[in-house]
């Protein structure tokens, strides 16, 4: 079952704006940073009463939390959906009750877009395309552009926008480069434990055939690196296989600095202030953008590739240094 922390029950909170936030879970460092951003933004000091619910990665818990928020007559519902589908019924209930719903991070796929007021999050397919473009440029720069490349994809939670987009970005590149092969794609559910478990079995199956391990978040990469090293292989540019990742959390960039994660595509978790801006605009009776993408960068362990291009646009690649990590 999910845990609802009712942060304030006192009835003297008349002029606070009540926000019910249904969070996916606590599966990753990214998620922890996202929760922290939401909690520190929606504080009493800032004029809010936050009802926070951790759904432990289960959609049924999120649906129950939303029904609970409707019953409590919150002013706004904020939903970080675990997967894209399956929201029509409960969002219709929120709409019927007149509670605006703001979607954050992953997207919902609903038949009627009026079931939510606004969405803010990342362009996950662009993230995937950027990672794949980096891999291509890196192999070219290393003089290995024409050699066969065997890739395994440790996917995120199946059906989550972050998984759908990142997998799609890789698959598009695999079909473009005839020397790239996707040996396998398996979900690591965005967790370190599952990332490690999945990598252990991929190593049993493919061993040193694997050249590239494409992890769809940092925590999976940590688990995969442990599995690779435990099996006696070396990770990194001069090793047996390279590991790529997404999120660029502090711990993730630290592993990028030491070369174990060769490339780390950023995903920004600091959505609290963005959601607050949406709510403040709505409070003034003004309209908000239906969808808003966050700008994100890409980091690598060395400066071999300084710029990549995706669909005709160029993106700078930042070489990770201690200063870069400290400044974030
Ligand atoms: O990449 C991963 C987390 O949806 C963007 O979820 C988010 C993803 C993030 O578990 O670490």
Automatic annotation (TrEMBL):
Q: In the record, what terms sit under GO molecular function?
A: carbohydrate binding
Q: Which Gene3D superfamilies match?
A: 3.40.50.2300
Which domain of life does the UniProt lineage start with? Bacteria
Q: Which UniProt keywords apply?
A: Signal
One Gene Ontology cellular component term attached to this UniProt record is: cell envelope
Family assignment? Belongs to the bacterial solute-binding protein 2 family.
Q: Which PANTHER family match?
A: D-ALLOSE-BINDING PERIPLASMIC PROTEIN-RELATED, GALACTOFURANOSE-BINDING PROTEIN YTFQ
Per its record, how is this protein called by name? Answer: LacI family transcriptional regulator
Q: Which organism is it from?
A: Anaerocolumna cellulosilytica
Highest classification ranks of the organism: Bacteria, Bacillati, Bacillota, Clostridia, Lachnospirales
């Amino acid at each position: 079952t999910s845990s609802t922390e009712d942060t304030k029950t006192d009835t003297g909170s008349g002029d606070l704006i009540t926000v019910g936030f249904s969070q996916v879970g606590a599966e990753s460092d990214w998620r922890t940073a996202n929760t922290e951003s939401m909690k520190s933004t929606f504080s009493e000091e800032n004029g809010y009463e936050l009802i926070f619910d951790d759904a432990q990665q289960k959609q049924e818990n999120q649906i129950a939390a939303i029904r609970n928020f409707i019953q409590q007559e919150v002013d706004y519902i904020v939903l970080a959906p675990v997967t894209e589908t399956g929201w029509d019924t409960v969002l219709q209930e929120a709409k019927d009750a007149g509670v605006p719903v703001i979607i954050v991070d992953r997207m919902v796929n609903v038949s009627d877009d009026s079931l939510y007021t606004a969405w803010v999050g990342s362009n996950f397919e662009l993230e995937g395309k950027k990672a794949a473009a980096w891999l291509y440029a890196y192999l070219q720069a290393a003089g290995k552009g024409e050699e066969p490349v065997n890739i395994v994809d440790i996917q995120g939670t199946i059906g989550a926008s972050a998984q759908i987009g990142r997998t799609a970005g890789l698959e598009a590149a695999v079909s473009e480069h005839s020397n790239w092969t996707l040996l396998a794609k398996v979900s690591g559910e965005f967790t370190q434990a599952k990332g490690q478990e999945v990598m252990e079995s991929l190593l049993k199956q493919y061993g040193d055939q694997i050249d590239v391990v494409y992890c769809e978040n940092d925590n999976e990469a940590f688990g995969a690196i442990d599995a690779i090293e435990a099996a006696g292989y070396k990770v990194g540019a001069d090793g047996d296989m390279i590991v790529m990742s997404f999120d660029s959390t502090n711990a993730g960039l630290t592993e990028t600095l030491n070369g174990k994660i060769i490339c780390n595509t950023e995903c920004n978790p600091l959505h609290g202030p963005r959601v607050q801006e949406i709510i403040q605009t709505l409070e003034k009776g003004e309209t908000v953008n239906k969808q808003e993408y966050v700008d994100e960068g890409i980091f690598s362990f060395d400066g071999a590739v300084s710029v990549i291009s995706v669909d005709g646009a160029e993106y700078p690649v930042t070489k990770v240094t201690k200063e870069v990590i400290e400044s974030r």
